[in-house]
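Curious: explain these tokens?
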Amino acid sequence: MWAALSEFFLDTELDAADYLRISKELAASPYPESELEAILLHEVYPACKANLMCVAGEWSGFHPEWIRSAITPRLGRRRRFLPLFRQRWMFDHHWKAVRPLIVAQRQHPSPPPPPDDSGAPIELPPRLRWLRGSSWIPITIGKSKAHVFLLQTPSGDSFVLKCAARNAAPPLAQEAERLRWLSERLPVPSVVQFLQWNEREYLLETVIPGENAATANLPARALADLCGDALRRWHSAPVHSCPFAWSTDEAIAEARQRLDSGTLETDDFDVENLGRDPHELFAEMLTLTPKTEAPALIHGDFCLPNIMIHGGQISGFVDVGRAGVGDPYRDLALVCRSFEHNAKGEAVPVFLERFGLPNPDQQRLRFFRLLDEFL
């Protein structure tokens, strides 16, 4: 509680997400709003106010032990005179933003974990039950076969939790392996925990700051330049030590297996392919199969929703379950399609120019777009 209130005195800007997180922590305390305000004024303010008067004060967070040692001696000695207005303005606007959120949290507490497709609640493995009491925000953008949630714990920590059947494609075990290898080479989430339990896989990972490139408020040309630079970074990375490969032949074999299994979701085909017979589409794809490959480190699903933007720059990459050594045209085909699907088609030539391939092989691009219909 003291730690949550002390954030009002950090040398940084608080936004709506910060207010929501702080309100959840305070709402979980046993104190009414009036007592929380008194604690803020009489205990936290005297201990932390000096930080707001420093030229370069603490901005990342006060250490809990420091807060405890600074406040404990003041307990039971509440001041008769409250801070003057010219002092209170430094933190009062934070309290006015958080107080109604506390009231709302107590009237409508966070719901239990959301249901899965069968209507049964997603059951947490014993080793993940410390996440109970978190707020659960479904992440629905993209075409992941997993249930994906942004979690915020009562202590204010944020995580992404993915849950999928063990036979999902690609399996979460595969993504966890790639995240661990990529973490020393590119900005990707860190694996907090990976578990297999009751025929399901659970991947808990850290949060990449920012928002995905599909929703980022950036001009199309600026976004195209960022993505061009980012993909060159992937494809220029050394591949000699990469333990993961995904050749075109392997991808075709996986696509054929899905076609034969009858599990294709043809409703998710690109608009130009809707209504087409999937066997005919597969046959057309095979006629376009590249004769050679120039292997590079590829993301495997380099689409705008999987590229994170923060402060006008690329902050990281997510959904790397198909990353490994493969044909770079797979990434090129998917990101060009993603620009078109997100009404940024005019960015494609800018992206290709920035990437360094202004005149790509159109047949190769077509092949990988068709291949993705089956994966």
In short: The mean pLDDT is 87. The longest strand covers residues 158-165.
